[in-house]
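Lab notebook page, bench 4
Experiment: in silico fold of construct C2
Operator: M.H.
Input chain length: 278 residues
Purpose: comparison with the prior construct
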Amino acid sequence: MFCRPSELWLLYLANLKLDQMYIWFHSRSLSAYQDSWFKSLFVRKVDPRKDAHSHLLAKKEDNNLYKIQFHNVKPECLDAYNELCEDVLPSIHADPEYPCELVGTWNTWYGEQDQAVHLWRYRGGYPALTEVMNKLRQNKKFMDYRNERGKMLLSRRNQLLLEFSFWNEPVPRPGPNIYELRSYQLRPGTMIEWGNYWARAIEIRQQNQEAVGGFFSQIGSLYTVHHLWAYKDLQSRENTRNAAWQRDGWDEIVYYTVPLIQHMESRIMIPMKTSPLK
């Protein structure tokens, strides 16, 4: 079949356009593949594990369980609330019939206002917690305290925690000190990575004895980490934190752990009169 010159020209242009489109799509596909392959070099491969995070991160030599309580108190009731706690909580701490210890009890100074924070340790894990709760239900003084306390609160929440294996166990400390509770909400699935980095970081931050305790949640808000620090005052805190940046490795640890965090919060807290952590 004979084609006129104009038709041949149009056919040539059509074929040229198809060739250009093929080259464009091929180059895009190759570029996408190369980009995906290149990014895959930097994706951390995680080996499947059959151990729970708690078994990998928590201390093996003891069976301690911690409970942290956050009580938001009516502003006009804070003094009465503190007096009530100072009358009842130390008696539970001192009674050998209860396998629990009051680690520390504070009022927030900076952060959420009119808030009390209590940290308990149960030696013996969940059975000890259950034993204490059952005995407290039979304790009239505690039940009266609980009823009176309820009239003073706006809200309350708690978490059950385990302590990281690489942190020291919190022990009574003389004062006066201020305490900082830094709470981190991590992205799900990143707890092991966080623990690996902080096992190195704590060696840097223990040089001034400011590290008190490190915990991660088991019940309550999950993938939550709490770091508890002690300082003489706010200026001491500033100096200590700035000094960490002068030590080898601290900047790298911060660089790699910040992307693991969804939300973080800092509370500066003042110990109550009867707190073992003064």
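Observations: The radius of gyration is 29 Å. Residues 8-14, 22-26, 28-47 have pLDDT under 50 and may be disordered.
Next step: discuss at group meeting.
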